[in-house]
Amino acid sequence: MTVSAIGRYEFKARDRLENFHGNQVVYFHWEEHLLYCAGLALPLPPAMPFRTVLTDILPGCYGLHPEWPQVDWSRVTWMLDSRPFKPVMDASLAANHIGHKSLLRFWTPGLHGIGGIATC
Amino acid sequence: MNAMPPLQKQRKLSLKERYAHLTRDLGWETTYQPMDKVFPYVAYEGIKIHDWDAWEDPFRLTMDAYWKYQAEKERKLYAVIESFAQNNGHLNITDARYVNALKLFLTGVSPLEYSAHRGYAHVGRHFVGAGPRIACQMQAIDELRHAQTQIHTMSHYNKFFDGLHDARHMHDRVWYLSVPKSFFEDACTAGPFEFLTAISFSFEYVLTNLLFVPFMSGAAYNGDMATVTFGFSAQSDEARHMTLGLEIIKFMLEQDEGNVPIVQRWIDKWFWRGYRLLSLVSMMMDYMLPKRIMSWAESWEMYFEQAGDALFEDLSRYGIRKPKYHEVAAKEKHRLSHEVWSIFYNYTQAAAFHTWLPSEEEMTWLSAKYPDTFDKYYRPRFKAWSEMAAEGKRFYNQTLPQLCTTCQIPMGFTEPDDPTTICFRSAEYKGERYHFCSDGCKDIFCHEPEKYVQSWLPVHQIYMGNCGGAEVKDVLAWYHLNFGVDNFDYEGSPDQKLWDEWQAQKAANPV
Predict the structure, then answer these.
(1) Mean pLDDT for each consecutive 10-residue tract of chain B (511 residues)?
(2) Would B317 be classed as within a structural domain?
């Protein structure tokens, strides 16, 4: 559908890739750990290897959670933009088809929130 | 000398005649310019009006009567504000935590009153019919008065408490204030009929009780007589505004059958937009009032589910049904406030008000009000956070949140049937991905994507470098927030320190 308007009504997306100075926005969400209230947004270079996100970026995001040190990345299951996803660890975000404003949700087997309560 | 003929004493006009002069006599068919040039916005939304004179004016308020009533109310209000200040009324509130509800109101709601003033002044110019035009113009003046009296009422608190010093500036910049700001800008950039459906009907008629009753009763319960008096002063205006809301809907529906689907879509959209905006009120009711009135779930049941049922039953004869996704709102009522408070607890380092952990007594109240959800999902979370705080590591989320493109609230709402899983929805438009917190927000985007691709999402704006810098401190400076004073937990805040000093003085000098 289009907007009812009195004239031409077309705009460029305000959040298009070129506005982020070489980064792209990628969203992450650690499922069953709602101590962190919402999905997180990160500006990351598309050339960053996926492994680097896990070793250098996510610990700064989720490290305060008592279950974080037990996360075993070899057992984690992923969804990328609503599809099951198997990351290639040493390939870049771009090579893993993680695009601008992609959403990555991940589940950590055996870790279901503090005391097994997913809202924690 | 010619004697002046004796002046004929003019018969005083009746109220009805004066009203007729003010309205119908000031509306005429233009001849120098065609009507569609003079009223360029009245047709493009697709609403068909065959007879503008069919508009019923329930109040028949003339300008002189309007000024008289309003001036009387102002005199009373300012007398109360004055005595509140002279008697140090702020010392009689239940607790300094209460002031945080005022901070949210002053930065989030009062600027909307001003936006409403602009919106009504605009549409009041653009309707062809004199009845709706006058009603809108009067409401425009009301809204300006509300903005002004709210600022005056709350300015007393600004002398003592933090975070109240620059509401207008904050409204345009602070991340969570983009929620009310974008809501209103969405309405003001629509045509005149959608604007009235959005603000007069969905907001003022259907949802306003959920905003004003909690804030004003909350003020009364918590000893804030200044804000209560403001509430009374606005009440009679609100009655007029609600009537305008119902009038415009019935007028559109009665004028042409083709208007029904357009109006229904607007009701669906603005119900959901308004409901999402009110989630801020839910947290205020359940967490921010030291002395609570009723729970969010109870007020939703009373003011929307019961009152709304009667309203939509009445409108069903026009072919209008209840707003889409009202059943989702019903499912969410037992968790909404807890999820929103969690968002603000996560990000209090970047907010212009304080958050805190509920006390044991408050949690007992929450358990009683939310027997199916609180102990199961939320009490354990508060326990985890309080253990972290006790170790001196108060939990703050270090990473900016993903936001919903439509309502702009962080993506913290859960699936309608599962309070433990976040509800992620997305859509693609012209090769770009967009994310939403709910089917309601997704539908709104998908109907008018060109409008929402322009959303000024605060998190993305920070990452683009448009908000003063990359560090939290830089961004807060750009917000005009005083770092370490306005933000962070209530525990340890200057507000708390000052309040505790006052309480100690009171205890030392009993009257």
Answers:
(1) 65 85 83 95 96 84 89 94 95 97 96 97 94 92 96 96 97 98 97 97 90 89 92 87 92 97 98 97 96 96 93 96 98 98 98 98 98 98 98 97 98 98 98 98 98 98 97 97 98 98 93 67
(2) yes
Q: Is residue A2 part of a domain?
A: no
Q: How many domains does chain A have?
A: 1
Is B11 within the bounds of a domain? Answer: no
Q: If you write DSSP's letter for every residue of A57-110 in order, what string do you get?
A: IHHHHHTTSTTGGG--GGG-EEEETTEEE---TTSBTTTTT--TTEEEEEE-TT
**Which ranges of B90-207 does DSSP label H, i.e. alpha helix?**
99-108, 110-126, 130-158, 167-173, 178-188, 192-195
Domain count, chain B: 1
Tokens of B197: 């459906």
Closest chain B C-alpha to A32 CA, distance in angstroms: 7
Q: How many interchain CB pairs under 8 A, A with B? A: 152
Chain A nearest-CA distance from B100, in A, is 21
**A55 occurs within a structural domain:** yes
Of A25, A102, A120, the CB nearest to B460: A25
CB-based contact A34 B420, cutoff 8 Å = yes
Please write the tens of the pLDDT for every residue from A60-115.
999 999 999 999 999 999 999 999 999 999 999 999 999 999 999 999 999 999 99
